[in-house]
Amino acid sequence: MKQSPCPPMSDADWPEAFAELREGFAGAMNVYRTMAHHPALLNAWAPLRQHVVKDNALGPELTEVVILRAGFRLGSAYEWAHHVSRALALGFSDARINAIRGVPESINGVDGLIVNAVDALLDKRMLASDQEETLAEAIGREAVIDLMAMVGFYSVLGYLLKTYDTPIDEGIQKEARSNPALFSLTPPSA
What local confidence, expressed as pLDDT, does residue 1 receive? Predict the structure, then answer.
């Protein structure tokens, strides 16, 4: 197998001009160590990441629903595994996580609305007006806009991760060994 032209950047190779990012969020994860091959983009990415991932109107649980579905639909094993870990830390059950990667019609409530919205954005590149209205009534319009931004944000990350074959971080790999079916992109057989 051909080696990635942009493997996660080591501390020794990290651009000194952006050392503060290495000490923060970017140095802790392979996705951002891969993005460090383009320091200006990584630097510009930092404030957007803060809003999209941390300070959005969705809150932590619904954020994970969006990211899990987007990671699953994009076929990003990295994002799926990392966000299964985060969802479990938030108290998600295995059944809820499995439902998010399942058939959208089988998911009820707000999770179902979000899963269907992520699918619509990836398949049709928009939300139909009635879908947007129903979603806005359930979670608020700012949360709907944040959901759209989040799907775009994670699409870009998925492109980078898959193109450069970024490895899942060691800590997540270790956690995944305790429940490989849940951390795998492939849903368990019915």
Answer: 65
